[in-house]
Specification:
The protein is of the alpha+beta class. The chain has 20 helices and 23 strands. Strands 1-5-2-8-10-9-14-15-13-11-12 form an eleven-stranded mixed beta sheet, sandwiched between helices. Helix 7 runs antiparallel to helix 17 and helix 9 packs antiparallel against helix 13 (343-363).
């Protein structure tokens, strides 16, 4: 079987379900790709899992049904400041390296879902940097140009995805390390809300700000991974449960930079691409609102030009004092600078952070989401060598403030300049807006017809979790009482239905709470020309016989018809008599039955 250029999750899962692929096939393909790409860029990986271990893992998975594991056989990479049992954790510093006996909590959760760790990827030492040039294991480069940086600090993870070596990769993000490399390599970088992914097993950079992030070919794949990886963890001091915050409304507003705040360091092509991104989002139903960037910029300065750098030193203080000479010169100099701050300075910085957060929180009254450039421009390796600190600082212009202000973010491709180098934008939302942020970013990515990674010649099927059923099976979208955790879900369980996606309808649907329904149920109605948030649905796969039995038991006024999803695909779903539906209370603005206040 021929593999696609980018190893998107749904493609692999569908092929495994249909018997066209096995995890062993996937492992062999990945190993061949990794070996071949080493001749292009030998600095992507620090350590690989031995081939015999990978094949043994694949064989183990093949003893289990595909339907049991939502990431069955899916290959992924892990940034080498995150523990993987049986491999060293180096944080890109040989003198710091130790052998991990347990995997990080996030890695364990993904492996339990059936994913296969291929190896550990390169990074800026101790995750300190946005350039990807601060590692004794070599410097990965942009997949489009060996003369330009890959971005960092999650350099190897981004390149591994962009080069089609793995389906997704874990990075980390404190100041932009999960977003800048995504932009520089034409992929998606999803930075979750702080704390929703456990940091147990992560070498800290700034523990109060650190996020484990996800690189993928599409926002759908990145969100799927985040969903499977998230869980509260009592062992992680900043862990917290996801409490979804809805962004969508009948129309959405997005904050953009005023002309005087638009800084691209002389790159007029990127300025034009940012303008184009704004127009494209307007075409998707958004209204652009100018934002005041000054408080965000001032917040960002706390991270490296203020006392928050002390937290970076705190994370490795014992090692720093014993092994300063073994550190990368630039990283060591940054840690040296931390020693000049007092405890008083640190608390003053924390107070300023919280004041800025109050200012930022008020911004959400003016718009639902921000659309910012991910970075002003891509820099060359020579520029970084000549000015390592200045070049790095410039790259964080639009990323450094996000974690300090407790925001979520999703970086997506946004086109190429005349020089063939990529540009990216980032969707930024308040904490816990991860799902809707990724959904909007995915809609933008698909509507812009952007490719992903290094493969520019073929448009990828960038979809919002659109599954493909096995031959003879049927996909069914449920919107109300059959959702997981709701009173009628047992009817799907009885037919052994498999949850294949949580996604949204197209924007021209309205949702109503049906009058006098027991148990309470919604009615879904399509209205051409209406532009709403899209309604959250769960998509289940049933065999034909189970689907027939399920449909036979439906009471009036419910019926089964075709529903259009946000990505443009159609699946079977619940429809309702319009007259009956409209006699109830409209709850469209809630974004879905799960979030409606009845």
């Amino acid at each position: 079987m021929t593999f696609p250029d980018m190893l998107q999750i749904d493609y692999l899962l569908t092929a495994c379900r249909n018997g066209a692929l096995t995890p062993t096939d996937i492992v062999r393909e990945v190993l061949a790709r990794v070996h071949a790409y080493a001749s292009v860029d030998a600095a992507v990986w620090i350590n690989l899992v031995p081939a015999e271990r990978l094949l043994a893992r694949a064989a183990e998975l093949e003893k289990r049904p595909v339907s049991d594991l939502p990431l069955y056989g899916v290959p992924f990479a892990v940034k080498d400041n995150i523990d993987v049992a049986g491999l060293p954790t180096t944080a890109a510093c040989p003198a710091f390296a130790y052998d991990a006996t347990e995997s990080a909590e996030v890695v364990r959760r993904l492996e339990a879902a059936g994913a296969i760790v291929i190896g550990k990827t390169n990074l800026d030492q101790f995750a300190t940097g946005l350039v990807g040039m601060r590692s004794p294991y070599g410097q990965p480069h942009c997949v489009f140009s060996a003369k330009h940086v890959s971005g960092g600090s999650s350099s190897g993870s981004a390149v591994a995805v962009a080069a089609g070596l793995v389906s997704f990769a874990l990075g980390t993000d404190t100041a932009g390390s999960g977003r800048v490399p995504a932009a520089f390599n034409n992929i998606v970088g999803l930075k979750p809300s702080r704390g929703v992914l456990s940091t147990t097993g992560l070498v800290p950079a700034c523990e109060s700000l650190d996020c484990i992030s996800v690189f993928a070919a599409s926002a759908a794949d990145a969100w799927r991974v985040e969903q499977l990886a998230m869980a509260p963890d009592a062992h992680a001091p900043y862990s917290r449960a996801m409490v979804p915050r809805r962004l969508a409304a009948d129309t959405f507003r997005f904050g953009v930079l005023r002309q005087k705040d638009r800084f691209f360091d002389g790159c007029t092509a990127n300025a034009a691409l940012y303008d184009r991104a704004i127009r494209q989002l307007v075409e998707l139903g958004g209204t652009a609102v100018e934002l005041d960037f000054a408080p965000l910029k001032e917040t960002a300065e706390l991270l490296y030009s203020g006392p928050f750098v002390v937290e970076r030193l705190t994370a490795i203080a014992d090692f720093y004092h014993a092994h300063r000479a073994d550190m990368d010169p630039t990283v060591g100099a940054i840690m040296d600078g931390a020693t000049r701050y007092s405890a008083t300075d640190v608390f003053k910085g924390i107070y300023r952070q919280h004041l800025f957060k109050q200012v930022a929180d008020r911004m959400w009254a003016d718009f639902d989401v921000m659309l910012l450039p991910t970075a002003p421009r891509l820099v060359s390796r020579e520029e970084v060598i000549a000015q390592p600190v200045a070049a790095n600082s410039m790259l964080g212009t639009y990323t450094n403030f996000v974690n300090l202000l407790d925001m979520a973010a999703c970086a997506v491709p946004a086109g190429f300049g005349p020089d063939g180098l990529p540009f990216g934008v980032t969707f930024i939302g308040p904490a816990f807006s991860d799902h809707d942020l990724a959904a909007l970013a995915g809609r933008f990515h698909a509507a812009a017809h952007n490719t992903s990674g290094v493969f520019r010649n073929a448009v990828l099927p960038l979809v919002d979790n659109a599954p493909v059923p096995a031959p003879g099976n049927v996909l069914l979208a449920v919107v109300g009482a059959h959702l997981k955790g709701f009173p009628l879900h047992w009817q799907l369980e009885k037919e052994h239905a498999i949850l294949r996606a949580t996604t949204r309808t197209a924007p021209d649907y309205r949702l109503f709470a049906l009058p006098d329904a027991s148990p309470p149920k919604p009615g879904l109605v399509r209205e051409k020309g209406f532009v709403g948030p899209g309604l959250e649905v769960e998509v289940y796969e049933l065999d034909a016989a189970g689907f027939g039995r399920f449909v036979a038991g439906l009471p009036q006024p419910m019926a089964i018809g075709k529903i259009s999803l946000a990505d443009g695909s159609e699946v079977c779903g619940f429809l309702c008599s319009e007259a009956v539906a409209r006699s109830g209370k409209e709850i469209t603005a809630s974004g879905g039955w799960r979030y409606a206040k009845l």
